[in-house]
Structures are given as structure tokens and as C-alpha cells.
Amino acid sequence: MNIFNGITLFGGLAMFLYGMRMMGDGLKASSSGTLKKAMERITGTPVKAFLLGLVVTAVIQSSTATIVLTSGLVGAGIISLQQSLGIIIGANVGTTITGQIIRLLDLDSSGTWFLQFLKPSTLAPLALIVGIFIIMGMNSDASRKIGHIIIGFGILFSGLLNMTDAVAVLADSGIVGRLFSRLGDNPLLGYLSGAGVAFALQSSSATVGILQAFSTSGQLTFGEIYAVLVGIYLGDCVTTAIVCNIGAKPEAKRVGVVNILFNLSKSILILTAVAFIHRLGLLDGLWNQAIHSGGIANTNTIFNLSCAFLLLPFVRIYENLSHKLVKDEPATVGKYDEMLDSLNPVFISTPAVAFGRCYDVLLVMCGLAKTNIRRAFDLFTQYDPEILKQIQEDEDYIDTMADRVSNYLVQISSVITSHYHVEIMNYYFSAITEFERLGDHALNLAEIAGTLHKKGSAFSQEALAQLAVMWELLDTILAHTYEAFHKQNLTEARQIEPLEQVVDDMVSELKNRHLERLRSGTCEVFNGSEFFNLLSESERISDVCSNVGVATVSRATPEIRHQVHGYISMLHSGRDEDFNQAYEEAHKKYLGQL
User: Fold this and answer.
1) What does the radius of gyration of the chain's CA atoms come to, in whole angstroms?
2) Residue 452 · residue 527 · CB < 8 Å
């Protein structure tokens, strides 16, 4: 054993960990949207939740990611703590799938050509070749994700092969045998060693994989490694609990606590059961027998499955204990605080979930702005200071939401790589600006009404009747805007632009008519200036809605994405029959009421 063997060992470990991370990131990126929907809809029994946690973890190759995501969903109020309990236990079982994949190290090279094909020495370079071919030969984001998953798989096994080569040298020097014999003589030391390594690597799968690599020396026995395996469970869940506690609400923190309680119970149960069965002499044939990669994978799976079946009926006990260990915080006073808390940092590593939380907040922003505009128009016919106060309060909420979503999107931008996610982020940044502007225009309208009220003035009945038509038109545009964003509905989005053109026509007409009233003395000069301000605000509201509609259409229509101004010019120049027809019908309907 010399320094060069050590370099080979740790270099192989680095490749193994990087390959696991690369493969896991690719799996999460390619499946996060589907997994998010599945986890949000889980409403059944603990058994169904258990199966979901198992499947999700098997797919993304990380129990930590599954449990942290679950913690975020609980903190956001999307699923309850009770629903999450089965997912947590299932995640602990699902993480054993990685070990079953790594057991390919045990394949006998003297087998058939098919088994030779599956050996890591063949599979690793083949995966690298296929992965790089996909990445370099295909341009789509989905293809690149698949390529990264396959390359990650190849790097993982290449690292394992380097590790096993170095371990063979360690085995010849007797270091492996002496090291693990000491752990076998002291189960507590083995338990703490497994916990420490898993905590340092922040991955139970990686730690089990390292143990499997060492098993190729043929010098590991069941009696030496079982306590190490059990310690790995605790080390990994402590890391998960720490992540779950970062900026989290009590319910989200309880997810991490439940995971620790479950793994502590699992540790006690396994260590007690193994000691008891060994004392009875039932493990004599296995205790000192050499254990290889497949044996470690099977032991790991059996330990986890057995504990899951035995402890799953007691999940309510874990829930009650978590409530005692993590106390509730004083109730917050803001009516949107819980929704804003859903912009949780734990979702950032899963962009599909993080964008979903942004969408929820943006939809509320749009709805609040729409409601405030209606309230503001109502103030011109029946002034109520309480309504003005409500408009101001909700405008503060809109501004707060805009700031929180903007900051959250900036955090998301540091982890996204796909063009699809970049497009969503740009669309949401645009929506933040437009919905905040809608809120500002609503407040401006309300302040105009407030100014009139303080002066003891009011618009004439003729002016109010015309404003009622304007509000009917704006309400229609706002409804199309809300639905266009809510459902990404292109039909709704395309209805906005012709109506915006009608608003411009109506503003011009109402200005001319109001000038006539000023000349005839029907309206005061002061009222006239406020009426013009109101019309300007109405025109700006329709412009904002137009921006949202065009952004929605261009997002779904790549050919106009970089030619937005040309697209709008084409519509307004009369070269689109659908636009022309919608404009003519709306113009006749609304201006005909004046």
C-alpha cells in the first residue's frame, strides 16, 4: 500500500460521488414535474403514501431529496404531516435500490455474453459512449437530461471500478481485514462509523456503495458490517433533518424529526433483533462468512423493508412525538403569510415545484389587482372610506408578493439549466411587473375617487353612465387576462388585443365628449381634469392586460417570441381576420352603448 493507491482510492470515490450526483440531478430534472403532481395528490392511506415514497426515491435516487421535498409540501400546506409519514418510511426503503444496482459488481465474468455485457467493466464505458453521443448529437433539453443521466451512471461505475482496484491492494496488505475486524468486535464503534461517514457524505446510498466496493476484497463479514449499515441510516437522516429545518415552519420541521425518530427506532429494532438472533445461534453460519456486494444490498433492503412493515402501523406515535418535540409558533396575522411561506428554499433544487409555488402567488396577485380595480370604479358611484382602506391594504400585499416572488425567482435562476425553465422564469418575471402595475393603477383610480370626495365633487350622471360602459369593457379584458394566465389559455389571451384597441377608441371618444361637457358647463374644470386622469388610468390598465396576453401567446408560439412588436403591428394593421372580426364586434357592442 502506498500513496498512489490512496490517490486511486479517493479519486475513484470522487468519481463515484460525482456520478451519483450527476445521475440523481438528471433524474430529478427530468421527472420533477410528474413527481410533484403525484406527491401533491397523495391523499390515501399510509400504505399508499409509503408506496409513493418508495417509487419517488427509487426514481430520483435520493431519500434526502424526497424527504426534503415532502417537508416543503407540508410546510406549504399542500399535504398534511399525517400524509407525509408514509412517504418518509417509503423513502427509506426506496433508497436501497441504488445498492441493488451496484451489486452488478458481483457478476461472474465467466458467465454468458449477456452477463458479461452487464458487468461494470463493460457497462461503464458503454454508458459513457451512449451518454456523450446523446448530448453531442441531439439538441433538445429532454435528450440532454437523458444523456446526463446515462453519463452519470457510467461515471458512477467507473469510480467504483477504480475504488475496487485500490481496495484489492488494501486487501493484500491486510488493512481492510484489520479495520473491519475492529468494527466487528465493537458494534457501537461500527454504528458510529457508519453514521459519521453517511453524515459527511450526506448520502446513505453513497455510503452503502462504498461499503460494497470494500466488500470486493472478500475480507468483510456480516458480523463486521451489519452495525455499520444501521449507523448509515442515522447519519443520513440527521443531514435531512438539518435541511428540513432551514427557514421552515413547525410542520415542515416535524417531517425531519419524524425521519430521525423512525431511523432511531429502526436502529434499536435491528440491533436488538440481530443480537438476540445471534445469541440463539441462528446466525452462526452467516456471522463470519464473507459478504459481497449483493449480500450487502440484500441485507440493506431486508433491514429497511422489515422495519417499514413493522413500524408503519405506528406512524401516529411518531406524529404525536414530533408535536411534543417541535412546538407551534404563534399564529401570524397576515392573511397571505402561509401562502408566501410556500416560497420555501427547499423547493429550489426541484424547479418544477418551485415554479408551481411562484405561480400560486402570481395568480393571487392577479386576482387581487382585478378585484381592486372593480372596487376603485365602484367608489365613483358610492364612496366608502373602508373600501379605499381595503384597496390600500391589498395593494401592500401585492407589493410584498411581488418582492418575495422576484427574490425567489432570482434564487431559482442559479440552479436551472433547461431552456424550458428559463422561459417560465422570464414569463413569471414579466407577470410580476404587469400584475404589480395593475395594482398601482387600481390604487391611482381609488385616489382619484378619494380626491373628488374630499372636494365634495362628483361626475355628472352622463359621465358616470359612460364610465359604466368603460368598466364593463375593462372588466371583460381583465377576465380574459386572468384566465389567460390561470390556464395558459391561448383563446383567452388572443381576445385581449382587439379589446385593448377598443379601449383606445373609447378613451378618445370619451375625451371628446367630456370636452363638450366642459365647454357647455355641464362639468366643472376640476372634475374634467380628474376625468381625463381616470381615462388615462383605464388606458394603461388595458395596455398592461395586452402585455400579459401577448406574453402568453408568444410563450406558446415560438415563431413570434422574438418578433413581438411585429406581431402586434400585424394585428393592428388589419392583416389578421380573427382580430378584425373580434375588434369590429367589440367596437360595435361597447361604443354603441355610449
Assistant:
1) 32
2) yes
Distance of CA 464 to the CA centre of its chain: 48
**CATH of segment(s) 340-456:** 1.20.58.220
- CATH 1.20.58.220 range(s) for the chain read 340-456, 459-594
Q: What is the value of pTM for the model shown?
A: 0.72
172 pLDDT higher than 60: no
* Burial class (CB within 10 angstroms; exposed 0-12, middle 13-18, buried 19+) of 223: buried
Sign of CA dihedral 296, 300, 306, 310: positive
Per-residue 3-state assignment (H helix, E strand, C coil) for 219-242: CCEHHHHHHHHHHHHHHHHHHHHH
Q: Going by C-beta distance under 8 Å and a sequence separation of 6 or more, which residues neighbour residue 174?
A: none
CATH superfamily, domain 459-594, is: Phosphate transport system protein phou homolog 2; domain 2 (1.20.58.220)
- Cell match 361604443: residue? 591
Specify whether the CB–CB gap between 496 and 484 falls below 8 A.
Answer: yes
Percent of the chain with pLDDT over 70: 84
Count of C-beta atoms within a 10 Å radius of residue 275? 13
Q: Is the pLDDT of residue 34 over 70?
A: no
pLDDT score, position 480? 96
